[in-house]
Protein backbone atom coordinates (compact mmCIF):
# COMPACT_ATOMS: atom_id res chain seq x y z
CA UNK A 1 0.00 0.00 0.00
CA UNK A 2 0.94 3.67 -0.25
CA UNK A 3 0.36 6.93 1.57
CA UNK A 4 -1.14 8.27 -1.66
CA UNK A 5 -4.95 8.19 -1.81
CA UNK A 6 -5.82 4.89 -3.49
CA UNK A 7 -7.06 5.04 -7.05
CA UNK A 8 -10.86 4.57 -7.34
CA UNK A 9 -10.22 2.49 -10.47
CA UNK A 10 -9.90 2.81 -14.23
CA UNK A 11 -10.37 6.26 -15.78
CA UNK A 12 -10.15 5.35 -19.47
CA UNK A 13 -8.60 2.81 -21.83
CA UNK A 14 -7.01 3.92 -25.11
CA UNK A 15 -6.71 1.52 -28.06
CA UNK A 16 -5.46 1.41 -31.64
CA UNK A 17 -7.90 1.08 -34.52
CA UNK A 18 -7.67 1.06 -38.31
CA UNK A 19 -10.46 2.60 -40.38
CA UNK A 20 -11.98 5.55 -38.43
CA UNK A 21 -15.48 5.25 -39.92
CA UNK A 22 -15.66 1.55 -39.13
CA UNK A 23 -14.51 2.31 -35.59
CA UNK A 24 -17.21 4.96 -35.14
CA UNK A 25 -19.94 2.75 -36.56
CA UNK A 26 -19.12 -0.15 -34.28
CA UNK A 27 -18.63 1.64 -30.98
CA UNK A 28 -21.54 4.06 -31.42
CA UNK A 29 -24.18 2.10 -33.31
CA UNK A 30 -23.41 -1.55 -32.52
CA UNK A 31 -22.34 -1.12 -28.89
CA UNK A 32 -24.43 1.96 -28.16
CA UNK A 33 -21.77 4.16 -26.55
CA UNK A 34 -21.89 7.91 -26.97
CA UNK A 35 -19.18 9.73 -28.91
CA UNK A 36 -18.41 12.33 -26.25
CA UNK A 37 -15.36 13.83 -27.92
CA UNK A 38 -14.14 13.91 -31.50
CA UNK A 39 -10.62 15.26 -31.44
CA UNK A 40 -7.03 14.51 -32.50
CA UNK A 41 -4.05 12.67 -31.08
CA UNK A 42 -2.24 15.58 -29.46
CA UNK A 43 1.11 13.91 -30.18
CA UNK A 44 0.14 13.11 -33.80
CA UNK A 45 -2.44 15.72 -34.88
CA UNK A 46 -3.06 14.13 -38.29
CA UNK A 47 -4.75 11.21 -36.47
CA UNK A 48 -8.19 11.28 -34.86
CA UNK A 49 -8.77 10.63 -31.19
CA UNK A 50 -12.30 9.32 -30.54
CA UNK A 51 -13.76 9.11 -27.02
CA UNK A 52 -16.73 6.76 -26.46
CA UNK A 53 -18.44 6.80 -23.06
CA UNK A 54 -21.73 6.96 -21.20
CA UNK A 55 -24.20 9.82 -21.72
CA UNK A 56 -22.13 12.31 -19.71
CA UNK A 57 -18.56 11.06 -20.16
CA UNK A 58 -18.37 9.97 -16.53
CA UNK A 59 -14.84 9.02 -15.37
CA UNK A 60 -14.52 5.25 -15.66
CA UNK A 61 -16.57 4.97 -18.86
CA UNK A 62 -14.32 6.26 -21.67
CA UNK A 63 -13.00 3.86 -24.31
CA UNK A 64 -10.82 5.91 -26.63
CA UNK A 65 -9.15 5.16 -29.96
CA UNK A 66 -6.34 6.33 -32.19
CA UNK A 67 -7.33 5.20 -35.72
CA UNK A 68 -3.88 4.80 -37.26
CA UNK A 69 -4.99 3.61 -40.69
CA UNK A 70 -1.56 2.61 -42.02
CA UNK A 71 -0.40 0.67 -38.96
CA UNK A 72 -0.14 -3.12 -39.15
CA UNK A 73 -2.37 -5.59 -37.34
CA UNK A 74 -1.33 -6.04 -33.73
CA UNK A 75 -0.96 -9.19 -31.65
CA UNK A 76 -1.94 -9.43 -28.00
CA UNK A 77 0.78 -10.86 -25.78
CA UNK A 78 3.00 -10.31 -22.77
CA UNK A 79 3.41 -6.71 -21.69
CA UNK A 80 -0.06 -5.67 -22.86
CA UNK A 81 -3.63 -5.25 -21.71
CA UNK A 82 -5.22 -8.38 -23.17
CA UNK A 83 -8.93 -7.73 -22.58
CA UNK A 84 -11.06 -4.77 -21.63
CA UNK A 85 -14.35 -5.64 -19.92
CA UNK A 86 -17.48 -3.49 -19.59
CA UNK A 87 -20.36 -3.74 -17.13
CA UNK A 88 -23.85 -4.44 -18.45
CA UNK A 89 -27.03 -4.99 -16.40
CA UNK A 90 -27.85 -8.48 -15.16
CA UNK A 91 -30.10 -10.34 -17.57
CA UNK A 92 -28.94 -8.42 -20.66
CA UNK A 93 -26.53 -10.94 -22.21
CA UNK A 94 -29.30 -12.59 -24.24
CA UNK A 95 -29.99 -9.17 -25.77
CA UNK A 96 -26.31 -8.73 -26.58
CA UNK A 97 -25.95 -12.15 -28.19
CA UNK A 98 -28.96 -11.40 -30.39
CA UNK A 99 -27.51 -8.02 -31.27
CA UNK A 100 -24.12 -9.53 -32.11
CA UNK A 101 -25.87 -12.01 -34.42
CA UNK A 102 -27.76 -9.17 -36.10
CA UNK A 103 -24.64 -7.06 -36.61
CA UNK A 104 -22.24 -9.88 -37.46
CA UNK A 105 -20.02 -9.41 -34.40
CA UNK A 106 -17.42 -12.09 -33.72
CA UNK A 107 -18.21 -13.42 -30.24
CA UNK A 108 -17.51 -16.52 -28.11
CA UNK A 109 -19.54 -18.62 -25.72
CA UNK A 110 -20.15 -17.19 -22.28
CA UNK A 111 -17.72 -18.12 -19.51
CA UNK A 112 -17.94 -17.95 -15.74
CA UNK A 113 -15.22 -16.42 -13.59
CA UNK A 114 -14.60 -16.70 -9.88
CA UNK A 115 -17.52 -19.07 -9.64
CA UNK A 116 -15.90 -22.39 -8.71
CA UNK A 117 -17.47 -24.61 -6.07
CA UNK A 118 -14.56 -23.74 -3.80
CA UNK A 119 -15.17 -20.03 -4.26
CA UNK A 120 -18.91 -20.37 -3.68
CA UNK A 121 -18.24 -22.34 -0.50
CA UNK A 122 -15.79 -19.68 0.66
CA UNK A 123 -18.30 -16.90 0.01
CA UNK A 124 -21.04 -18.81 1.82
CA UNK A 125 -18.83 -19.47 4.83
CA UNK A 126 -17.90 -15.79 5.09
CA UNK A 127 -21.48 -14.60 4.61
CA UNK A 128 -20.64 -12.87 1.33
CA UNK A 129 -22.84 -12.95 -1.75
CA UNK A 130 -21.49 -15.32 -4.44
CA UNK A 131 -19.22 -13.40 -6.80
CA UNK A 132 -19.47 -15.59 -9.88
CA UNK A 133 -19.42 -13.50 -13.06
CA UNK A 134 -20.95 -14.32 -16.41
CA UNK A 135 -18.72 -12.99 -19.18
CA UNK A 136 -19.47 -12.61 -22.90
CA UNK A 137 -16.21 -12.28 -24.88
CA UNK A 138 -16.18 -10.67 -28.33
CA UNK A 139 -13.95 -8.74 -30.71
CA UNK A 140 -14.38 -5.37 -32.41
CA UNK A 141 -13.79 -5.04 -36.19
CA UNK A 142 -10.04 -4.57 -35.63
CA UNK A 143 -9.84 -7.77 -33.57
CA UNK A 144 -9.62 -5.98 -30.21
CA UNK A 145 -10.57 -8.45 -27.41
CA UNK A 146 -13.48 -7.05 -25.39
CA UNK A 147 -15.89 -8.52 -22.83
CA UNK A 148 -19.29 -7.76 -21.38
CA UNK A 149 -19.79 -8.75 -17.74
CA UNK A 150 -23.31 -8.98 -16.34
CA UNK A 151 -23.53 -7.20 -12.97
CA UNK A 152 -26.17 -5.72 -10.71
CA UNK A 153 -26.24 -1.96 -11.36
CA UNK A 154 -27.00 -0.14 -8.08
CA UNK A 155 -29.62 2.61 -7.94
CA UNK A 156 -26.97 5.18 -7.05
CA UNK A 157 -24.55 4.12 -9.79
CA UNK A 158 -22.55 7.14 -11.05
CA UNK A 159 -22.87 6.22 -14.73
CA UNK A 160 -25.62 7.55 -17.01
CA UNK A 161 -26.74 5.16 -19.78
CA UNK A 162 -26.77 6.37 -23.39
CA UNK A 163 -29.87 5.03 -25.10
CA UNK A 164 -29.76 6.29 -28.69
CA UNK A 165 -29.13 2.77 -30.03
CA UNK A 166 -29.37 0.39 -27.05
CA UNK A 167 -32.11 0.38 -24.37
CA UNK A 168 -31.27 1.25 -20.80
CA UNK A 169 -31.94 -2.34 -19.72
CA UNK A 170 -28.86 -3.45 -21.71
CA UNK A 171 -26.74 -0.29 -22.02
CA UNK A 172 -23.03 -0.49 -21.22
CA UNK A 173 -22.36 1.12 -17.83
CA UNK A 174 -18.64 1.82 -17.81
CA UNK A 175 -15.67 -0.41 -17.24
CA UNK A 176 -15.67 -3.60 -15.27
CA UNK A 177 -11.98 -4.53 -15.55
CA UNK A 178 -8.84 -4.88 -17.58
CA UNK A 179 -6.68 -8.00 -17.81
CA UNK A 180 -2.91 -7.53 -17.85
CA UNK A 181 -0.66 -10.13 -19.49
CA UNK A 182 2.82 -10.24 -17.96
CA UNK A 183 5.71 -12.70 -17.96
CA UNK A 184 6.54 -12.13 -14.28
CA UNK A 185 3.38 -11.19 -12.35
CA UNK A 186 4.93 -10.36 -8.99
CA UNK A 187 6.36 -6.85 -9.71
CA UNK A 188 3.15 -5.81 -11.48
CA UNK A 189 1.02 -7.09 -8.61
CA UNK A 190 3.16 -5.23 -6.08
CA UNK A 191 2.73 -2.04 -8.11
CA UNK A 192 -1.05 -2.42 -8.12
CA UNK A 193 -0.92 -2.71 -4.34
CA UNK A 194 1.24 0.43 -4.25
CA UNK A 195 -1.53 2.17 -6.20
CA UNK A 196 -4.06 1.14 -3.55
CA UNK A 197 -5.70 -1.88 -5.17
CA UNK A 198 -6.19 -4.91 -2.95
CA UNK A 199 -5.72 -8.54 -3.94
CA UNK A 200 -9.19 -10.05 -3.73
CA UNK A 201 -9.37 -13.34 -5.66
CA UNK A 202 -7.42 -16.02 -7.50
CA UNK A 203 -8.62 -18.80 -9.78
CA UNK A 204 -7.22 -21.14 -12.40
CA UNK A 205 -6.87 -19.32 -15.70
CA UNK A 206 -9.30 -20.65 -18.32
CA UNK A 207 -7.76 -21.76 -21.58
CA UNK A 208 -4.21 -21.08 -20.48
CA UNK A 209 -1.30 -23.23 -19.40
CA UNK A 210 -2.37 -25.61 -16.62
CA UNK A 211 -1.31 -24.14 -13.30
CA UNK A 212 -1.56 -20.53 -14.47
CA UNK A 213 -3.68 -18.35 -12.23
CA UNK A 214 -5.82 -15.26 -12.78
CA UNK A 215 -5.27 -12.92 -9.84
CA UNK A 216 -7.78 -10.15 -9.25
CA UNK A 217 -7.11 -6.77 -7.67
CA UNK A 218 -9.90 -4.50 -6.51
CA UNK A 219 -9.97 -0.71 -6.27
CA UNK A 220 -12.15 1.35 -3.97
CA UNK A 221 -14.53 2.83 -6.55
CA UNK A 222 -17.73 1.63 -8.22
CA UNK A 223 -16.76 1.73 -11.91
CA UNK A 224 -13.66 0.10 -13.40
CA UNK A 225 -12.69 -1.28 -10.04
CA UNK A 226 -11.00 -4.56 -11.09
CA UNK A 227 -7.62 -5.39 -12.58
CA UNK A 228 -6.80 -9.03 -13.37
CA UNK A 229 -3.24 -10.24 -13.83
CA UNK A 230 -2.43 -13.29 -15.96
CA UNK A 231 1.03 -14.79 -16.59
CA UNK A 232 2.20 -15.45 -20.15
CA UNK A 233 5.47 -15.52 -22.03
CA UNK A 234 3.82 -15.33 -25.45
CA UNK A 235 5.04 -12.20 -27.22
CA UNK A 236 2.82 -9.52 -28.68
CA UNK A 237 3.15 -6.44 -30.87
CA UNK A 238 1.34 -3.13 -30.89
CA UNK A 239 -0.98 -2.41 -33.81
CA UNK A 240 -4.62 -2.52 -34.84
CA UNK A 241 -6.70 -4.36 -32.25
CA UNK A 242 -4.46 -3.74 -29.24
CA UNK A 243 -4.59 -1.47 -26.20
CA UNK A 244 -2.24 1.52 -26.26
CA UNK A 245 -2.53 2.35 -22.54
CA UNK A 246 -4.80 2.12 -19.51
CA UNK A 247 -5.45 5.18 -17.33
CA UNK A 248 -6.28 5.09 -13.63
CA UNK A 249 -8.22 7.73 -11.76
CA UNK A 250 -6.34 10.15 -9.54
CA UNK A 251 -9.21 12.60 -9.08
CA UNK A 252 -7.31 15.74 -8.01
CA UNK A 253 -3.92 17.21 -8.79
CA UNK A 254 -2.86 16.49 -5.22
CA UNK A 255 -3.97 12.84 -5.54
CA UNK A 256 -2.06 12.55 -8.79
CA UNK A 257 1.15 14.03 -7.44
CA UNK A 258 1.03 11.77 -4.38
CA UNK A 259 0.54 8.73 -6.63
CA UNK A 260 3.28 9.95 -8.95
CA UNK A 261 5.70 10.05 -6.02
CA UNK A 262 4.60 6.61 -4.84
CA UNK A 263 5.17 5.15 -8.31
CA UNK A 264 8.56 6.83 -8.51
CA UNK A 265 9.47 5.36 -5.13
CA UNK A 266 8.64 1.93 -6.59
CA UNK A 267 11.52 2.36 -9.04
CA UNK A 268 9.53 3.57 -12.06
CA UNK A 269 9.93 6.77 -14.07
CA UNK A 270 6.69 8.73 -14.32
CA UNK A 271 6.53 11.82 -16.52
CA UNK A 272 5.75 15.30 -15.30
CA UNK A 273 2.09 16.27 -15.49
CA UNK A 274 0.83 16.82 -19.06
CA UNK A 275 -2.30 18.86 -19.80
CA UNK A 276 -4.64 16.79 -21.99
CA UNK A 277 -7.31 19.52 -21.92
CA UNK A 278 -10.15 17.35 -20.50
CA UNK A 279 -7.92 15.89 -17.77
CA UNK A 280 -4.32 16.16 -16.66
CA UNK A 281 -2.08 13.14 -17.08
CA UNK A 282 1.07 11.43 -15.86
CA UNK A 283 2.47 8.46 -17.81
CA UNK A 284 4.83 5.61 -16.95
CA UNK A 285 5.56 2.06 -18.00
CA UNK A 286 5.01 -0.48 -15.27
CA UNK A 287 7.54 -3.26 -14.69
CA UNK A 288 6.29 -5.49 -17.55
CA UNK A 289 6.24 -2.59 -20.03
CA UNK A 290 2.50 -1.82 -20.05
CA UNK A 291 1.87 1.91 -20.41
CA UNK A 292 -0.06 3.26 -17.42
CA UNK A 293 -1.54 6.73 -17.08
CA UNK A 294 -2.75 8.64 -14.04
CA UNK A 295 -5.64 10.95 -15.00
CA UNK A 296 -7.50 13.62 -13.05
CA UNK A 297 -11.31 13.70 -13.02
CA UNK A 298 -11.55 17.22 -14.40
CA UNK A 299 -12.14 19.49 -16.07
CA UNK A 300 -14.11 16.91 -18.09
CA UNK A 301 -15.57 16.67 -21.59
CA UNK A 302 -18.06 19.53 -21.08
CA UNK A 303 -15.20 21.98 -20.62
CA UNK A 304 -15.37 22.97 -24.30
CA UNK A 305 -18.78 21.63 -25.46
CA UNK A 306 -22.25 21.72 -23.91
CA UNK A 307 -23.46 18.35 -22.63
CA UNK A 308 -26.12 18.08 -25.33
CA UNK A 309 -23.55 18.68 -28.09
CA UNK A 310 -20.74 16.38 -26.97
CA UNK A 311 -18.97 14.82 -29.96
CA UNK A 312 -20.86 16.97 -32.43
CA UNK A 313 -17.81 18.66 -33.92
CA UNK A 314 -14.06 18.26 -34.27
CA UNK A 315 -12.56 19.81 -31.13
CA UNK A 316 -8.98 21.06 -31.43
CA UNK A 317 -7.58 21.86 -28.00
CA UNK A 318 -5.24 24.72 -27.27
CA UNK A 319 -2.83 25.79 -29.98
CA UNK A 320 -4.20 23.23 -32.45
CA UNK A 321 -7.21 25.47 -33.22
CA UNK A 322 -4.91 27.84 -35.12
CA UNK A 323 -4.01 24.91 -37.42
CA UNK A 324 -7.59 23.76 -38.03
CA UNK A 325 -7.61 24.08 -41.82
CA UNK A 326 -4.45 21.98 -42.28
CA UNK A 327 -5.49 19.41 -39.67
CA UNK A 328 -8.97 18.93 -41.17
CA UNK A 329 -7.47 18.52 -44.64
CA UNK A 330 -5.27 15.66 -43.38
CA UNK A 331 -8.08 13.76 -41.62
CA UNK A 332 -10.39 11.22 -43.26
CA UNK A 333 -14.00 12.45 -43.56
CA UNK A 334 -16.28 10.60 -41.12
CA UNK A 335 -19.98 10.61 -40.25
CA UNK A 336 -21.16 9.99 -36.70
CA UNK A 337 -24.04 7.45 -36.59
CA UNK A 338 -27.34 8.91 -35.44
CA UNK A 339 -30.37 6.94 -34.36
CA UNK A 340 -33.67 7.26 -32.60
CA UNK A 341 -33.65 6.70 -28.87
CA UNK A 342 -33.88 3.05 -27.90
CA UNK A 343 -35.42 3.91 -24.53
CA UNK A 344 -38.87 2.99 -25.80
CA UNK A 345 -37.70 -0.63 -26.18
CA UNK A 346 -37.46 -1.03 -22.39
TrEMBL record:
**Cell wall biogenesis/degradation: is it a keyword of this entry?**
no
Provide the GO MF annotations for this entry.
Answer: dioxygenase activity
Q: Where is this region: Disordered?
A: 116-139
Extent of Polar residues compositional bias: 116-125
Which residue ranges does the record assign to the VOC domain? Answer: 9-151, 174-297
- This protein's UniProt keywords: Dioxygenase, Oxidoreductase
Q: Which domain of life is it from?
A: Archaea
Q: Which PROSITE patterns match?
A: VOC (PS51819)
Coiled coil feature spans:
none
Q: What protein name applies here?
A: Glyoxalase/bleomycin resistance protein/dioxygenase
Amino acid sequence: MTDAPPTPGIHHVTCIAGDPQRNLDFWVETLGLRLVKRSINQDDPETYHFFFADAEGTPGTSMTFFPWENLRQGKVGSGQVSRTAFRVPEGSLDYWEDRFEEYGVDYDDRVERFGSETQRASDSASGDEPRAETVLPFRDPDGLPVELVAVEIPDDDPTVPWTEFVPESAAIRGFHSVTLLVADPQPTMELLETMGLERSDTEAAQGDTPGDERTRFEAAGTVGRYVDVLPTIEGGRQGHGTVHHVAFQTPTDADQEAMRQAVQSAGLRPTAQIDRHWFRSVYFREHAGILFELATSGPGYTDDEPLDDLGGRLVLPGEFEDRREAIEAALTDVTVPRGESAAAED
